[in-house]
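W.,

You were right to be curious about this one. When I first looked at the sequence I had no strong expectations either way, so I just let the prediction run and decided to look at it fresh. Below is the sequence, 296 residues in total, followed by the output.
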Amino acid sequence: MTWWCTGIRWQDGGPAIGWYGQGRGERASVLAYGQRLAFVAGGERRCLGVRRAGKRTPCPTAATVPGRAGNAQCPACARLDRSFSVAADTNAADPRTYRVYLAWFGPGMVKVGITAEERGPARLLEQGAVAWAWLGRGPLMAARRTEELLRAALGVPDRIAYARKRAVRAGLPSAAERAAEVAELHARAAALAAWPESLERVACEVTDHAEAFALDALPAPARVLTEMVPGGAVVGRLAGAAGPDLHLADGLVVDTRLLAGWELTAPQDAGAATSVPAAEIPAAAARAPAAQDGLF
């Protein structure tokens, strides 16, 4: 039975690797910082189909997906996915309560976004937000209007590239400085008068993800995975994780979006070395914690 990797999953405040087996559903392998990771990509990268309401519908053609694609879906499944998507504004009738958040990723790197209240802080972990605070809560369309209002008023973007986030992650200012920047922007947002009446404002309470991401243990990134290839291996100690990124102690950053759609197995050679395409980026000495061995 083949289990296909679905990328990183943040559950109970920590990272895990997700798996999908057709006819068997989904499962996850919890990751522990300091553990040894070793896996090899087998076969071809396959479309993961469409996941909706916690259930996954397989791709009807079992289409292959390019190794460098950030999304493990064929064009047809991607279109179907977006046809019922809050992010794509194609599901305006969603009756759930939504929250508007302010997320901080590094000095001067802040965004405003929305997430379903039932998901809690999962969206912030998935995006790699280092510090964040809730701004308000209410119906979807009120949350969306507030998001657009605050984005324009605060002069912040709707998204920040992961490359920018990971480049500063190993050398961030103190937690106090991070909280102060978030609190200052929260106060500016709260002072605006044009909020929709149906959106309840939320008092500022800054949350920091330093512990969840193991920021104090992260080496400066030296190179980042650009593509998985058949037979390509990743081997190393897991120093920390943030958003979709796994940070290994030798400075390699594994973007788990590129793992999704692959069948990953343990290498037959116990002394296997990393052999995947990776782009060099500025690096510093890595610090590796001691830990247990294991595949995921």
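Here's what jumped out at me. The longest strand covers residues 97-106. And, maybe more interesting for your project: Residues 111 and 159 are 7 Å apart (CA to CA).

Coffee later to discuss?

I.
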